[in-house]
Amino acid sequence: MSITYTHPDVLGRGVSEGWAEQESDPRRIDWAARLQAAAIPFEVIDGRPVNPGRNRYPTGIRYGRGELGHWGEKVAADALVTAHYDGGRWLLMVERDDGHGWAAPGGCLDDGEAPVDAAIRELAEETGLVLGDGVIWTVLPVRYVPDPRATDEAWMVTWPATADLGEVAELPAVTGADDARHAAWVRADSYRAVVAALADVGGSVFAAHVSLLRDLLDER
User: Fold this and answer.
1) Measured between alpha carbons, how far is 85 from 170 in angstroms, rounded to an integer?
2) 42 forms bridges with which residues in the sheet?
3) What is the model's pTM?
4) Where is each Nudix hydrolase domain found (predicted)?
């Protein structure tokens, strides 16, 4: 059975607040420019975009946008900020205000914005942390993320940007804001350590960031 689903907020609040496309039928979209600009190539069949990650990460929703406001690909950047304190590694995370768990600070790129600039902006907006010019940022290759809000016709990809603060005498103060309920430094000697730390406060990792954080934390 082919399931069709778009959350009511997309065409209601999403359109009125400007985070969702008004067009309700992807077959009326001119896909040529979007295909050319795609961070990760995808197909359009019979005027409908096809999620390139649907086979590895089935969404269960064939048609519609789920909880996402766009059709096809949307590009984000995530700030993966680590520090070494009290004999271990810590990762800065935020609790999302949509109930989908804890994630690295991040969000969608503005038009013409470079991934590293978007990561730095989202970090400041969601945690209040502004890092100095001496911090070195490394932008990793763009990657598909299995966002739980996605469908076979609407999905997310991200540019991860990493910054390590090295050994610190104390962890910088952070405060959740914008799209984040809370911001906190989480012990992150391994991905398993993050999961355990969040479980202690009744939290869990945002599904879209599980493989991202596992790759980051367990490779180092």
Assistant:
1) 7
2) none
3) 0.92
4) 70-208
Domain ranges of the chain: 4-70, 73-218
- Give Cβ neighbours of residue 157 (< 8 Å, ≥ 6 apart): 39, 40, 73, 74, 75, 76, 142, 143, 144, 145
List phi, psi (to 5°) of 145: -120, 135
Distances (CA, A) of 47 to 35, 138, 192: 12, 37, 42
* pLDDT given for residue 171 in this prediction: 97
What is the structure's pLDDT at 134? 87
Provide CATH code, domain 73-218.
Answer: 3.90.79.10
Kind plus residue range of the DSSP H or E element containing 34: helix 32-37
What are the phi and psi torsion angles at 198 (to 5°)?
Answer: -70, -35
Q: Which residue has tokens 């059709």?
A: 71
